[in-house]
Structures are given as structure tokens and as C-alpha cells.
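Handout, page 2. Input:
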Amino acid sequence: MMKFRLYPYLLVMAILFSCSKSESLSSGQQNSSATGTAGSLARFAIVGDYLYTVTTTNAKIFDLQDPANPIFKADTPFGVAIETIFPLGNTLFLGSQNGMYIYDISNPLVPVRQSLYTHITSCDPVVANDKFAYVTLSTGQNICNRGLNQLEIIDISNKKQPKLVQAILMNKPQGLALSGNDLFVCDDKVKWFDTSTSPILTPKGVINSKAHDAIITGKILMLVGENGLSQYDFSGTEPKLLSEIRTGN
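Output:
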């Protein structure tokens, strides 16, 4: 284990996390169409030549064909109490305190709402694949203290009619990351699940880390928490700590 070597992936995570945490209430493995990688608590996403940044109600869209000179293109109403954004192909998943919005961005400048999956008021990051969305509901923020603490699995095979198919009790879950059949959920510890039989999840292990968010690059899991940043190799049966940078006491 190398404690002070900063892997390139970890540097990326540090930069992105500082952006995603710039707002007090805001903040997964991204898919092939997303050219920028951020955590599940992020308030921005890069898809193709476009950058989407979300406020609590709107999305601002920028053209990045010339990355050195981004051009503002649109300011689109998206919903209410939006906290996070996650891209998958031509779809944006928006986590809000009231639910999960699904938008089609086949026309990048004219997002079209497909549906809104609603739940009790809770803080709500989301990651997804083609069949399921994985959403953590948490009472971790004061504004969400009437909510639930659980991981919800939502069938999105019909994006116009998402439906809850499984709920797993958690403590105070926050960010999460998904790559292939591997799902990591930042709870009191980082919980590792096999999703190959979703909506039934198979526990694979835990990492004794109080992380807020996670990013996956290949078989490298990057975690960020109160005490700093860490990297794990999860190519084997147990995650192996590669490096960490401590920023707290």
C-alpha cells in the first residue's frame, strides 16, 4: 500500500468532488456516452459535446465542441429540489428530494421528460444501467430528516413508467457507484453488491470506510470521505487498498 502516491484517477476524483460539493446540499461509473466522469453526488455531467449543470430547478446546457471556449446554449426547467445528475446513453437521471426525474436527450439541447418516480422526501443520489436505477434515500441532511434510509431498485426498462421493485434498509446511505455487475453503496461502511440477479442483490463484502461518494474506473474504486481520498482494487474477491490521502485529523 502506498499512502502518499496520488494516482491519476484519484486526482480526477479530487477535482470533481470539490466541484460537486461546492453547494451545501449537493453533490457513478459513467457509461460510454459520457465523456466526463463524476460521482453520484455530482451536479454536472458531460455527454458528448455538451455539459449539463443543474440548479435546484433548472439545467444549464453548454456546447463544448471547442472545450477552451464553452458556449452557453440553453437554460431548461427540469424539476423541483434537484440534487444530482447521472447520464446513461441518451438519458439523464436527476435525483431530487422528491423523486427521480428521467429525461431523454436525443436532442441534446431540448431535453424531454420521460417520467418522474416519486418517493417520500429524502436526499437522493442515483446511478443506473439499461434495466435498473439504484437510488439511495437518506435522512443525512437536515432538509431530509423526515425521509427514509434505504437503497431502492427501480425497474426502468420502460422509462416512461419506472416502478419500484426492491428496497433495502440502510443506515444513512449517500453516494454510490455502478460498473457492470458491481455496485458500491456508501453507507456507515461501503457496501459491495453483485447486481447480476437484480432486483435481488448479493452482498460481496464491505470496506471499512465512511465515504460520501464513489467513482469506478475499470477495476479501481475511488472513495472520498471526511478524512480524505482512497483507492481500492476490486478485481479480486476482496477490495485491496492501493493508496490514500488523508485530509482530516
